[in-house]
Amino acid sequence: MKVNIEIDCTPDEARTFMGLPDVKPMQAAVMAKLEQQMLDGISAMAPDSLLKSWFGMMPGTEQMRDAFVGLMKTGFNAPR
To answer: How do residues 24-60 score in pLDDT, each as one tens digit?
Structure first.
């Protein structure tokens, strides 16, 4: 014996009929938090913030000038 039952209902109606909880508010909260984290990560990769972080690690212009002068002096005074 073979019995086929066909039920035509939406997923919300089936979830309610089975007594399962509605997880839409939780999904929306998780997605909002995930979206905010992604946007924060993207803003950290913006060109202006990347340049600030790169140039923040470099020495100042006076230090660069002194380093080049020191290199030039040792280069000219090197034995030939």
So the answer is: 999 999 999 999 998 888 877 777 777 777 766 666 6
Q: CA 65, 50, 42: angle at the middle one, nearest 5?
A: 180
Measure CA of the first residue to CA of the last residue in the chain; give whole Å. Answer: 104
Half-sphere exposure of 39 (CA within 13 A, CB side): 6
> How many Cα atoms sit within 13 Å of 2 on the Cβ side?
0
* Residues sharing a CB contact under 8 Å with residue 12, sequence separation 6 or more, in sequence order: 22
* The two structure tokens encoding residue 78: 């090197």
pTM, two decimal places: 0.46
Degrees to nearest 5, angle at CA 50 with 64 and 63:
10
H-state helical runs in 1-80: 11-18, 24-44, 47-57, 61-76
